[in-house]
Structure formats: C-alpha cells, structure tokens
Amino acid sequence: MIYLQITLRISKNNRPSAAEVYQRYKAPFLNTVAGAKSKALLVREEDVQVLHGFDTTDQAHAYLTSDLFVKDVADGLKPLLSADPEIRIYQSF
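That's the ABM domain-containing protein sequence above. Prediction below.
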C-alpha cells in the first residue's frame, strides 16, 4: 500500500470548514481516482493530516496533479491554511 500524507496547518477556528472540504471530496476521491483505496482525516493539536491510500506511487503522484485535487480540494483549502502544506508519500511493507 502507498500512503499520501498531506499535513495542513489550519487554525482551530478554520478546522470545521476544512472538515467540510474533506467530507465534500471524500466520496469523489474514493469513487473516481485511479488506485484510491482509503482516505482518513487525522486531527492533532498542532495540525491536520489527510492520509490517502493508493495501490501505486504513480497513482498518488497523479492524484496531486488531478483536477479533483488542484481545482477542488486545494482551492477549497487555500483560504484556510496558515502555511504551505507538507506532502509526503510512503510505502508500507
């Protein structure tokens, strides 16, 4: 399994709006993105993380350039961010 982890710096006041963006695009992600296996919202005191599961690294990279991510998710989150997102891709064994 490949994991795409996106860490977002979002103030506590903006987290409900960020959760709305997550909920709005979770089903389209799982239903339309090639290789998509899972999507989870992880909330910590210092940040919010979205963990996406894929079959392959190429599919994770392709999602980052897709219209769903660029035009919908990223544009929806942009006004809520306190800093640029941190993006990492991991492989589990």
